[in-house]
Amino acid sequence: MNGAPALSARGLRKSFGETEVVRGVDIEVPPGECFGLLGPNGAGKTTTLKLCLGLSDPDAGTIELLGEPVPRRAREARRHVGVVPQFDNLDPDFTVTENLVVYGRYFGMQVREIEARIPQLLEFAGLAGRAQAKIQTLSGGMRRRLTLARALVNDPKLIFMDEPTTGLDPQARHLIWEHLRHLTLEGRTLVLTTHFMEEAERLCRRVAIMDHGRIIAEGSPRQLVARHIESQVVEVHGQGIEAWMARAASLVPRVERAGETVFCYASDVKPVLESLAGQSELVYLHRPASLEDVFLKLTGRDLRD
After folding, report:
1. Looking at the predicted structure, is the pLDDT value of residue 190 above 90?
2. Of 46, 211, 233, 271, which sits most exposed with the smallest number of CB within 10 A?
């Protein structure tokens, strides 16, 4: 690729009927980077990934995937790409090993070559010893981890992951995060969507926040926090929150309420903490601002379907 981006997309647009779900999206991901595409449900993330993979044709815009023009040469590019879909699509009639072998054959790999990779893939997924297990006997978390391992069967240069750790317990999620970090250290490129803001902060060198089909913010997680949000947050809930909230509004630049919790945002939250002294009926948490605070500020707190 001679230093070219692993993925480059310019001016992507895609409509379904009268609804434009991708509205002029630009993405560029250099080799060896973990790039996160974040957004509420319906923001256009999954459609954008499908466009970049050549699984759907754009109405406008240009795409290069591993140096190949997409969709014209998408099949050639995908030979060096791994994909973790949003929903597991393992074959329930096959064993763990058979799922990996069949998937590898789609890439033209020889059975002997695939079988040589299986122990490493199962170790990656924390499934060592489960090679002959039927899919129906695996827990939901195990199936998700197998889907992650399957995406690596062809030794890809670039891996697309749509909600990769959905359904995993905290222990499994941390295991996968550690393995994904090692993939980037090996020089592989990762493009992921996630609803776990902690996941994006831990893994991604850069993230783009997408809403209503557009990218509305882009940068490293720390850059986005510094650019878009006050540095400190105090979360407060408990009896008498309404009366206290009215007072808090005069102490800090921004106060928000979500359900029974009040969020106070400021560079200096000392006045808020002092106002909480002796308020035994109120419970509070003081913490630094995070990527999740940025996400909620830019996309809102309303529930999306």
Report:
1. yes
2. 271
